[in-house]
Amino acid sequence: MKYFIDTHDKSKGTFPTQVLTEEQFFEQFASLEAAAGKLGVFGHAAHVNLKDGKAFCFMSGPDEESIRKAHAAINLPYDSITEVRRVTGADMRPVPARAKP
C-alpha cells in the first residue's frame, strides 16, 4: 500500500466557496471514505481549516489513479495528489548489523 496527500484550496476552486460547518465537512469526508473503500483506498485523516477553506487529506491505496478515482466518484476536485512516505522516528533509525555467530 502506498500513501498519498491530496490538497484542496478554496482560492483554487477545489474547496467549497461557502464556509462549511464541521458536520458538513465530516459528511463530505465520509462520502469520500465510502467511495474510496470500493476502490481499495482508505482515508486516514484530513487536516482542515474550514474558515480558510483548505484541506490536506492523508490517504492510502494501491496507486495515484485509485486516489483520483475516489475523488471523481463524489465529484470532489483537488489541487494535487502527492505520493509520500510515512516516516517516524523508528523508520529513521539505522538497522543494527547482525552479530556474526
Tell me the number of strands: 4
Helix content: 25-40%
Q: Can you tell me the CATH topology?
A: Alpha-Beta Plaits
For the biggest β-sheet, the strand order reads 2-3-1-4
Q: Major sheet: size, sense and barrel closure?
A: 4 strands, antiparallel
Rg calc: 17 Å
Overall shape: it is globular
What CATH architecture would you give?
A: 2-Layer Sandwich
State the distance separating the first and last CA atoms. Answer: 36 Å
Q: Provide the low-confidence segments as ranges.
A: none
Under CATH, the homologous superfamily reads ORF SCO4226, nickel-binding ferredoxin-like monomer
Summarize model confidence as the mean pLDDT. 90
- In total, the number of domains comes to 1
Number of helices: 3
- CATH class equals Alpha Beta
Question: Element order, helices and strands?
Answer: EHEEHEH
Question: How are the secondary structure elements laid out?
Answer:
Layout lengths: L1 E8 L12 H16 L4 E8 L4 E8 L2 H10 L6 E5 L4 H4 L9
Antiparallel strand pairs: 1-3, 1-4, 2-3
Describe the structure.
This protein is α+β, with helices and mostly antiparallel strands. It has a single domain, classed as Alpha-Beta Plaits (2-Layer Sandwich), CATH 3.30.70.3090. The chain contains three helices and four strands. It has helices at residues 22-37, 64-73, 89-92, and strands spanning 2-9, 42-49, 54-61, 80-84. A hairpin with a 4-residue loop joins strand 2 and strand 3 (54-61). Helix 1 packs across helix 2 (64-73). The longest helix is centred in the first third of the chain and has 16 residues, at 22-37. The model has no long low-confidence stretch (mean pLDDT 90).
